[in-house]
């Protein structure tokens, strides 16, 4: 996880776990569930916890675990399907992943600079990786860094 901290210039910091828990935005255990499934010698499963998914093995019809990415409101993008064949996807962003504190919607991603939820207005990201924990690290870093508006890219 320190690699992700370096790659994101500190936008992702695994040492903020206690602070994230304090805000009520703590992590979940998708990879741990897959580890239990593997230990139980089950041939295949799809695990989803809070927008994080990981497919293990293939379905009885030999197809991978196909999942459709939910589009943020007012997003005019084509339908997107992902085959989770021994892969994970972790969604992040302000659209679905947020909390309400004192009547205000806050991001579930904590800034490493301020210790407060970020305000980058990232609707949704969904990195894919073999490990759900690592996909979530990328999702957190992308959300914390934000995106540059299209108008400023010229």
List the helices and strands and how they pair.
Blueprint: H1 2-7, H2 17-22, H3 30-39, E1 45-49, E2 52-56, E3 65-68, E4 81-84, E5 88-90, E6 98-101, E7 104-107, E8 128-129, H4 132-145
Briefly summarize what is shown:
Helices cover 23% and strands 20% of the residues. The protein is of the alpha+beta class.
Keyword list:
globular, alpha+beta, 8 strands, 154 residues, T-fold, single chain
- Beta-strand residue fraction: 15-25%
**Secondary-structure element order, as H and E?**
HHHEEEEEEEEH
The CATH architecture can be given as: Roll
Q: Helical percent range? A: 10-25%
Residue windows where pLDDT falls under 50 for at least 5 positions: none
Our count of helices gives 4
* Cα-atom radius of gyration: 16 Å
How many structurally independent domains?
1
Span between N and C termini? 34 Å
Order of strands, main sheet, comes to: 1-2-5-8
**Which class best fits the helix and strand makeup?**
alpha+beta
Mean pLDDT: 79
Q: What summary fits the major beta sheet?
A: 4 strands, antiparallel
Shape category: globular
């Amino acid at each position: 996880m320190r690699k992700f901290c370096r790659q994101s210039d500190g936008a992702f910091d695994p040492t903020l776990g206690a602070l994230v828990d304090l805000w009520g935005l703590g992590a979940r255990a998708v990879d741990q569930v897959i580890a239990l499934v593997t230990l139980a010698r089950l041939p295949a499963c799809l695990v989803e916890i809070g927008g994080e998914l990981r497919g293990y093995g293939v379905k009885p019809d030999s197809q991978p675990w196909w999942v459709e990415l939910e589009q943020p409101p007012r997003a005019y993008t084509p339908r997107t399907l992902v085959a989770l064949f021994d892969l994970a996807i972790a969604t992040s962003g302000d659209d679905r992943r947020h909390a309400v504190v004192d009547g205000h919607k806050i991001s579930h991603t904590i800034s490493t600079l301020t210790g407060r939820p970020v305000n980058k207005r990232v609707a949704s990201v969904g990195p894919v990786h073999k490990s759900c924990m690592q996909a979530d690290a990328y999702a957190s870093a992308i959300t914390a860094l934000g995106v540059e508006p299209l108008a400023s890219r010229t």
